[in-house]
Structure formats: C-alpha cells, structure tokens
Design a protein that fits this description.
Layout (H helix, E strand, L loop, with lengths): L2 H15 L8 E2 L1 H8 L3 H13 L4 E2 L5 E2 L5 H25 L2 H12 L10 H16 L4 H22 L5 H19 L3 H13 L2 H8 L3
Antiparallel strand pairs: 1-3, 2-3
GO molecular function, one term: DNA-binding transcription factor activity
Keywords: DNA-binding, Transcription, Transcription regulation
Protein name: DNA-binding GntR family transcriptional regulator
Length: 214
C-alpha cells in the first residue's frame, strides 16, 4: 500500500469509527479525496483495505458505502467475544510477564469513562486496556482475532452510548476493570475469565444488540 493510501486508510477509518461517515451512508469518493488532498486512486486502495476489515462495502461499480449496523452482526460479535475475551483473560493471568502486568495497570489507570458522546481519546483508552490484557495471553492467533474485532465492535458501542449511561453502569464497569487487574496480578485464570465473561455480557455491545431489536 502506498504512503498516500496508508494515510487515507487511517483517516477514513477514523471517520467511520467516529460516526462522521454514518452507518449505511454512501461514501462520496470524489469529495472525500479532495477533502483528504489526494486523488481517487489511493483512496480506492484504502477503501479496498477497509472492505477487508469489514468497515466498507464496495459493489461491482466500485461504489462504496459504510455498512449498516445490524442485529445479526451485533449478535455475531457478542457471541465471539463471549468465547474469546474470557479465554484471553484467563491465559493472561497464567502467562503474563512483569512487563505485561505493568502495562495492564498503566492502561487501567488511564481509562476514561465512556459517556454519551465519547471522543477518540476515551474510546482509545478502553481499547488500550483490553489490548494489554489479550496481548498478555501470548497467543498470537487470539491477539490477531480480538484486534480485528475491535473496530467493528466500536461502531456498536457508539450506538449503545446514544441512550446514555447511568452512574451505576459506570461504577460496574470500573469495578470489572479493577477485578480483572487483580485476578491477572494474582495469576487467577479462572476468576479472570469469569469476570471478563460477566463484563462482556453487560457490555455496550450487548446493549447495542438489545437496541437493535434482538
């Protein structure tokens, strides 16, 4: 991928995840290329990569759109996370190094509450925390799988946040995060997996699935 296409990939991806390119909307490639200061050739290259990530749909005429949010995809994401996230947390507790634990603790201290309209910094803080946990599993296939799911799941988190969050929601999430750090620090894989499963079941992804009618 060319440098311009790589830059376009990052910028368009950020627009999709931030909701600036709304779910179901057509991507006006000419105007978007002008906005980014590039030609349509590197933009199309970036869009093809985003299609492989599941963040863009391209038809036979090379028209592009942002995929709509669906109950089916929300369900699929939740089902996969119910299996993979607890597995990663349990393995992290068993395999983490001192450096892994230091990073998990640091990212936990950097967490910022996700309220109705979070910015990139707030969303990134949660991604960094969860990434620190699943990276500590030292299972490369598991790490790649969870990393690939995160962008898709972020779009559903935004949907769930539109209905707001109570202080009770925020306190429960914070308690889950603390419990995960404690279990991983204690090398208690069973507890880490159980806490993570409960965390996923009460997650924004689960709320998004409910709001989509399933």
């Amino acid at each position: 991928m060319s440098t311009k296409a790589e830059t376009a990939y990052g910028l368009v991806r950020d627009k999709i995840l931030a909701g600036e390119l709304a779910p179901g909307s057509v991507i006006q490639q000419g105007s978007l290329a002008r906005e980014l200061g590039i030609s349509t050739t590197p933009l199309r290259e970036a869009l093809r990569r985003l299609m492989s990530d599941g963040l863009v749909e391209l038809d036979a005429h090379r028209d592009a759109r942002v995929p709509a949010l669906t109950a089916e995809e929300a369900r699929d994401l939740l089902e996969i996370r119910r299996s993979l996230d607890p597995l990663a947390a349990g393995l992290a507790a068993e395999r983490r190094t001192r450096a892994d634990l230091d990073l998990i603790r640091q990212t936990a201290s950097d967490l910022q509450p996700l309220r109705t309209d979070p910015g990139p910094k707030e969303l990134a803080s949660h991604r960094c925390f969860h990434a620190a946990i699943y990276t500590a599993s030292h299972n490369q296939l598991l790490i790649q799988a969870l990393d690939g799911l995160w962008d898709k799941a972020d779009r559903y988190r935004r949907l769930a946040l539109e209905s707001g969050r109570t202080e009770e929601d925020l306190e429960r999430t914070h308690a889950d995060h603390l419990a995960l750090v404690d279990a991983i620090a204690s090398r208690d894989g069973e507890t880490a997996a159980a806490v993570m499963l409960a965390h996923v079941n009460a997650s924004l992804g689960a709320r998004a699935l409910s709001s989509l009618g399933t």
